[in-house]
Design goal:
It contains eleven helices and eight strands. By secondary structure, the chain is α/β, with parallel strands linked by helices.
C-alpha cells in the first residue's frame, strides 16, 4: 500500500521546531524513537511503520537535534517531554502514544503534559529503581573522547554494548537496519541524553492519576534493569498491563517484528 509522507513541524515550549513525518490514515499513532541517535526512520526497519500506516495515521517524531528537528544551545531532558506533548497536542483527536527505550520515558512524561491521549504504549523505559542504577560516567567520558576524534560509529557501538546492554545478535540486526548511517551521524546526541536519563528520578506517586490505558512491553531476555523498571511502572500506573516478548530482548520490533506489530495494533483496536 502506497502512503504519502508529509514532513511537518510543531513549536515546542522553548520555541524549538520539532519535526515529524505523517503517513497513513486512521486513528492517530505517535511514535517516539529510543535513544542512540534515532530519528523517525527508527520505525522503518522490518516494515514496522508501513504496517502501522495501513491502520493508523502515524506521526513519527524526530528527536531534537536529529532529522529535521531543531535544537537548543543547552540540552535538558525535560524539553524532550515538552516536544512530544506539543506534537500530541497538535492533533485534532485523541492519540495513541508509543515510545521505545528512552523514547518510552519521554512518552511517559509527555503523558503528564497533555490531555489529548487515548492510550499509551511503553517499551522498556530506562527508569532507575531499587538497586538498578545507571552508572555511566566512564562510558560517557569515553564517548566524548571518541567524538573529539570523529569516531561517531564507535560512540554508537559503545552505547549499544556498554550502556544499553544489547547482545551481539541484536546489535547485528540494528547495524543491518536501513537507518544505521543516520544514527551514526547523530551520535553526538548520545552522551547528553545518557546524562539526562541518569539524572532522572522516578517518583511513582506522580503517576497515580495517569488513568490512560497503558500497555507495557518487555522482552524476556532484556537485562534485569529493564524488568525492574517495567514492574515498578506497572505498580505505579492505575490502568496498565504487561506483555512480554518471550525469547526476545530490548528490540523486539526487529527480532519479533510481526509479534510486536500485532500487540500494538491489538491494543489500539481494543475498546477504551
Amino acid at each position: 500500500m502506497t502512503s504519502t509522507h508529509t514532513t511537518e513541524t510543531v513549536t515546542s515550549a522553548d520555541g524549538t521546531p520539532i519535526a515529524y513525518e505523517r503517513t497513513g490514515s486512521g486513528p492517530p499513532l505517535v511514535l517516539v524513537p529510543g535513544g542512540g541517535a534515532n530519528d523517525h526512520t527508527r520505525w522503518d526497519a522490518g516494515g514496522v511503520r508501513p504496517a502501522f500506516t495501513d491502520h493508523c495515521t502515524v506521526y513519527a517524531i524526530d528527536g531534537r537535534g536529529l532529522g529535521n528537528s531543531g535544537d537548543a544551545a543547552e540540552y535538558e531532558l525535560k524539553r524532550e517531554f515538552e516536544d512530544v506533548a506539543a506534537v500530541v497536542e497538535s492533533i485534532d483527536e485523541l492519540a495513541v502514544l508509543l515510545g521505545h527505550s528512552s523514547g518510552a520515558l519521554i512518552a511517559l512524561e509527555a503523558a503528564l503534559r497533555t490531555d489529548n491521549l487515548r492510550k499509551l504504549i511503553l517499551y522498556e523505559p530506562p527508569i532507575q529503581v531499587g538497586d538498578h542504577d545507571l552508572d555511566t560516567e566512564k562510558e560517557v567520558a569515553e564517548m566524548e573522547a571518541l567524538l573529539d576524534e570523529g569516531k561517531h560509529e564507535q560512540v554508537l557501538l559503545l552505547f549499544l554494548r556498554e550502556v544499553a546492554d544489547i547482545p551481539p545478535d541484536e546489535i547485528d540486526a540494528l547495524r543491518e537496519a536501513p537507518n544505521w548511517q543516520r544514527r551514526v551521524e547523530g551520535a553526538y546526541t548520545i552522551p547528553r541524553a545518557i546524562r539526562g536519563i541518569s539524572d532522572y528520578e522516578f517518583e511513582a506517586a506522580r503517576f497515580a492519576g495517569l488513568t490512560t490505558p497503558t500497555l507495557l512491553l518487555e522482552g524476556s531476555k532484556s537485562p534485569p534493569f529493564h524488568h525492574a523498571a517495567t514492574e515498578a511502572l506497572n505498580e505505579a500506573l492505575p490502568n496498565s498491563r504487561v506483555v512480554t516478548f518471550e525469547g526476545h530482548g530490548h528490540v523486539a520490533m526487529l527480532t519479533a517484528t510481526h509479534h510486536f506489530i500485532d500487540e500494538v495494533l491489538t491494543f489500539i483496536r481494543e475498546a477504551d
